[in-house]
Specification:
about 475 residues, alpha/beta, Rossmann fold, 2 domains, 12 helices, globular
Length: about 475
């Protein structure tokens, strides 16, 4: 079943209790955390949490996913709120975000930045030396909220406060889940990573941590060796996985895409590479939660979704082509920012869509268009055209300021071959774009690079 409501307490400890004592809940390829071991530790740590942290607002700045996972389960139903601190947040920004969220205690597996006016607690304080179990009756649970930062791709990150009901609305449990070993390529402090963590725990599947390996090939090799049969990643990461020898060895039965526009090129490539896998692309955001999923192997989403809401999420498209969502289960909100939803419950996705026949296709972010002499250019459209060239692995399009037309279209491309001729690649990209796009959308500047970076969210780094 899906969409269970967990108002008080949260679901994590109950889901953990469904595992048999010897079941492996989490692994990093070196250590296996069995359910019985984790439950024993939770029982031993209970007293310290209730006496010191109960009902308080904590920031979890923990880079080790195995430590963070245990803290999340431990504090579920005990802490008042948990702010998840992404690895790429500069420490100079912590104080401001902590003030906004009302943080009282920061739990970290590294040195706490100097000058923070909050209590600091080492992450291993309870992990390594929990107190002995007591016979005292358990304290009544509290409703723990999770505060998750937006990616800040197009501006300053905002803090979104979620309840367990809004986070677990689409999580499948029990017999609905067919995969037994989920891999984690996202940061656990991000919305997408948290969704994978919740799905694995809810379905009694082992979750494979990879964050301790910096190289993507090494991470994929670990997942393949561990028999990972379910994996979620952005389209950008999936393109990298498709180029990876280790990635091709993954015994995948479930492929999930999210965070970026999933086009027909990447969907088709995944279907050919992993013919036994079910492919799902999810529309979700930190602000709205999981909106809807598409499982027909095609880009965009069926127009009928507007008349027949998928999964209880109403959709509408306004006159500007902007997509709005109204989930049946709501309760998330911005902290110290403008209202997240309208007075009647609609959430502005910030994405523009266009209807083509019986389907809506994503154009890009409403605030991400490049203004070329008054004409709008969506970077994602130009990127899709560039990626039609079989010798281009990745592409990033952005605007370059120009005093005459305001901005020029600039493309940075990564060839598949390491020894590709840059001049020849540039010529082919320019000619292909000129044959497929209006003149104002054709890149005026083309750079050829050996690598394109991704962010902690798995998205293509655009800043």
């Amino acid at each position: 079943m899906a969409g269970e409501a967990f108002p008080n307490p949260g679901p994590l400890r109950g889901w953990l209790a469904r595992f048999a004592a010897g079941d492996v809940v989490w692994t990093d390829g070196v250590h296996n955390w069995q359910a019985g071991e984790v439950m024993t530790w939770l029982d031993a740590a209970e007293g310290r949490v209730n006496s010191r942290l109960r009902g308080r607002t904590l920031a979890l700045a923990i880079r080790s996913h195995s430590q963070l996972a245990r803290w999340l389960v431990l504090l579920d139903g005990r802490a008042g709120a948990l702010l998840l601190v992404p690895a790429d947040w500069p420490e100079t920004a912590w104080a401001g975000h902590f003030r906004t969220a009302g943080v009282e205690v920061v739990v970290t597996d590294g040195p706490a930045p100097a000058g923070l006016k909050v209590e600091s607690l080492p992450a291993n304080h309870l992990l390594d030396s929990p107190s002995a179990p007591t016979d005292a009756p358990p304290a009544p649970p509290v409703s723990t909220r999770l505060v998750i930062p937006t990616s800040g791709t197009t501006g300053t990150p905002k803090l979104v406060s979620h309840s367990w009901a809004t986070l677990t609305r689409t999580v499948k449990t029990g017999a609905d889940a067919v995969c037994r070993r989920w891999g984690l390529l996202y940061e656990l402090t991000r919305f997408a990573g948290l969704q994978v963590f919740l799905q694995a725990l809810a379905s009694r599947a082992t979750l494979i941590f990879t964050e301790h390996l910096a190289d993507l090939e090494a991470r994929l090799a670990l997942l393949a060796a561990q028999g990972c049969d379910a994996l979620s990643a952005t389209p950008t990461l999936w393109r990298k996985i498709l180029m990876s020898p280790a990635g091709r060895r993954l015994p995948l039965r479930q492929i999930t895409l999210g965070g970026e526009i999933a086009d027909d090129l990447v969907l088709g490539a995944l279907a050919r590479a992993f013919p036994r896998a079910r492919i799902t692309h999810i529309y979700a955001s930190t602000e709205a939660g999981v909106g809807f999923s598409v499982k027909d192997g095609r880009a965009g989403f069926p127009a009928v979704y507007l008349a027949e809401p998928p999964g209880g999420v109403e959709l509408k498209v306004d006159g500007e082509g902007r997509l709005w969502l109204r989930p049946a289960v709501r309760g998330q909100f911005f902290i110290d920012a403008a209202a997240l939803e309208s007075t009647d419950g609609w959430i502005d996705s910030g994405d523009l869509v266009e209807r083509r026949g019986d389907r809506y296709h994503f154009l890009g972010r409403a605030n991400g268009a490049i203004n070329v002499g008054g004409d709008k250019v969506f970077p994602e459209e130009v990127e899709r055209v560039i990626l039609e060239l079989p010798d281009i692995a990745l592409a990033r399009v952005s605007g370059r300021r120009n005093p005459i037309v305001g901005a020029l279209v600039e493309a940075v491309v990564m060839p598949r071959a390491a020894d590709a001729n840059a001049a020849e690649i540039s010529r082919r990209v320019r000619e292909h774009c000129a044959s497929r796009l209006p003149r104002f959308k054709v890149p005026a500047v083309i750079q050829v690079v050996s690598a394109l970076a991704t962010e902690g969210t798995g998205k293509l780094a655009r800043r």
